Amino acid sequence: MADTVNLVILGASGDLTHRLLLPGLGTLLKAQPKRKVHLVGASAEELTQEQWQQRVTESVREGGCSADVVTRLVDGTRYVRIDATSATDLTSLLSGLSGPVVLYFALPPAVSMAACEALTTVPLPDDLRLAIEKPFGTDLSTARRFNHLLSELVREDRVFRVDHFLGKSTVLNLLGLRFTNRFFEPILNRDNVDRIEIIADETLALEGRSGYYDHSGALKDMIQSHLLLVMALLCMEEPNKIAERELRDLQAHVLRATRVWNDDPIASSRRARYTAGRIDERDVPDYTAEPGVDAARNTETLAEVTVEVNSARWHGVPIRLRSGKALGDGFRAITVVFKDAFQPEGFSNRAIPNVLVIAMSNESVQVRLNTNGADDKFTLEQTVLTADLGNSPVRPYGEILAHIMDGDPLLSVRDDVAEDLWRILTPVMKAWDDGTVPMDTYRAGSSGPTSWR
Fold first, then answer.
1. pLDDT tops 60 at residue 1
2. Residue 368 forms beta bridges with which residues?
3. For residue 116, is it within any domain?
4. What is d(CA 421, CA 136) in angstroms, rounded to the nearest whole number?
5. DSSP secondary-structure letter at 449?
6. N or C end of the chain: smaller count of CB under 10 Å?
7. 202-230 residue pLDDT tens
8. What is the number of alpha carbons within 13 Å of residue 403 lying toward its C-beta?
9. Do 132 and 160 meet the contact criterion of CB atoms below 8 Å apart?
10. What's the pLDDT band for 290 if we cut at 50, 70, 90?
11. Residue 258 belongs to a domain with what CATH number?
12. For helices 228-235 and 415-433, what crossing angle results, to 10°?
């Protein structure tokens, strides 16, 4: 941590940088105020140095930085207006930087690829790390081309494909929860588990992000990256140690064994789009009436896919992945439903299956058990044991940035994993493009289409 790291952000004027990246950096610098960062912003937008410094100040203060840390960062930052796909502009941007350089692509996939193509003709710093924001490509073929392109620039261990879900404390808690508790690890397998659900629903609607979202949709935005990676961490075998090669090998092992349930993308997937409704006392328009939306793209705002990990541990266990926008409850959790236990005769009611719930919204874990009723000991009732896991003081993007700046790819997505994420969902994407899976609708603020219940 002694060296000053140059954090150079391409697309620095965009929403991602202002809303997530810089506040995440702020939480990191609050937790580690001695960390030395030289921040450089670069974008096509016309910004004065003062405007850029003001944006940086507001964003890192949101992360809770002390005044002296904010001042040190802001006094040293600079903004450059560039065309990220221009070799001349990129040469000028990178020249003169001494020490480690993190080039962060906060750009759409096509622009990131074009920028990397330009970099193949540019003199590169010796200690250059490339941080590529998701989505990594737009399908399997573009992901493969992108991987090949990056391999011409730097070694794989200097490529950091960013998925901020891997920096979430809830997701990282899976490692301790699964592999350090004897009463969890031996029972998480096909002999005991009936099904798994990984759900990341949002109450937020489009919120002005049509430029990105209407070209992506829920399947590519959430399931193809975030939820499949969470599944890989949940379902992987026990690691020998918490290290990048060990963890990423085990995640890759899970994803290589993953396929759409019954190899039937039509029966195993559903999609829907929200219509006008009301959430938290605010009116939400029909998705197709949102500014910037092209109804002809047929973009879904709710996606669901059931997959299977075809391994000795998980074969036959359906894993439902679901995510959507403008949903009333905003439920976000990993739910493991266990098979029925043997029940002796004599109880007046049936036991409810045990459930493990790892909440991704409020950082908690629940175990739902059957116990004897308080008034009638021969009646079964459900008892819920709840533990608050606590929020990390460092936001996910801060956690991810720390590993990138330290040169540790533990929380980045490896090249083979990036391709497998697309490979798994390619049959679903084709079925949807062919129109063989209908587009259902649901009212904004509801829990989804009534036919799905």
1. no
2. 355, 384
3. yes
4. 10
5. -
6. C
7. 999 998 888 889 999 999 999 999 999 99
8. 25
9. yes
10. very high
11. 3.30.360.10
12. 130
Segment 405-432, tens digit of pLDDT: 999 999 999 999 999 999 999 999 999 9
How far apart, in whole angstroms, are the C-alpha atoms of residue 334 and residue 360? 7
Instruction: Please tell me the predicted confidence (pLDDT) of residue 183.
Output: 87
Q: How many domains does the chain have?
A: 2
CATH code: domain of residue 107? 3.40.50.720
Q: State which residues form the domain around 115.
A: 5-133
Residue 72 has φ and ψ, to the nearest 5°, of -60, -45
pLDDT digits (tens, 9 = 90+) for 372-392: 988 888 889 899 999 998 778
Do 313 and 183 share a structural domain? Answer: yes
Indicate the pTM of the whole model. Answer: 0.94
Which of 77, 110, 133 corresponds to the end of one domain?
133
Whether 226 is catalytic is: yes
